[in-house]
Amino acid sequence: MAPGNPTSTARGPFTPAVPFLACVMAVGAVLLINGGHDEKPPPQPSAAQAFSTSADPTHPAVRPLPAADPVRLRIEAIGVNAPMTRVGLDAAGALRTPPLGKPDHAGWYGDGAVPGSAGTAVATGHVDTPGGRPGVFYNLGALTEGATIEISRADRRTAVFSVRAVELYDRKKFPSEKVYGSSGRPELRLITCGGGYTKRTGYLGNVVVYATLTAVR
């Protein structure tokens, strides 16, 4: 359960090479359990939402944008309209989320790619809170291929991403290279907790959304 440190890959800029996002209730944990989630667990992606025969996007290429901080994230399909805040790594090297008091915020990994620029940008968010309140990414597992993710940026441009796949991973088998690696195209990953749940360990996996830049406004 000890995450690694950020490392560079031959395929893109620095991204957090953590084996999973810790989903336990502990000091410094990046995603939190929900004490009342048993009554209505968050949606989990099915096999139909995973990559099909090819992991390569079929959308037309869109020219990468220059760097500009993301400001707001919108996903109409699941009712998300959230402020974005910069996050980094904790002392153990795990990717942080926004503060517990801001479960409606999405966190952007500020030492990685900027959403819309070349490389793989990473955003995280709480699935829920210990008190049972749904977090910003509570319904992330319900997204399907073709859904649109919009990120407003400080340069007043909006980067529009199309979802390619949604997958669920056991945190002990988290495919870091697949999730964080970059093809050089402008891509986005949204990550939250998911999978099985126990009161002792919290969530046992992570939901990951893969999306590619398909338009700029």
Automatic annotation (TrEMBL):
CDD domains: Sortase_F. Residues 46-55 have a biased composition (Low complexity). The lineage of its organism: Bacteria, Bacillati, Actinomycetota, Actinomycetes, Kitasatosporales. It comes from the Bacteria. The keyword Transmembrane helix applies. InterPro entries: Sortase, Sortase_dom-sf, Sortase_F. This is Class F sortase. It comes from Streptomyces griseicoloratus. Pfam families: Sortase (PF04203). GO terms for molecular function: hydrolase activity. Residues 36-67 are annotated as: Disordered.
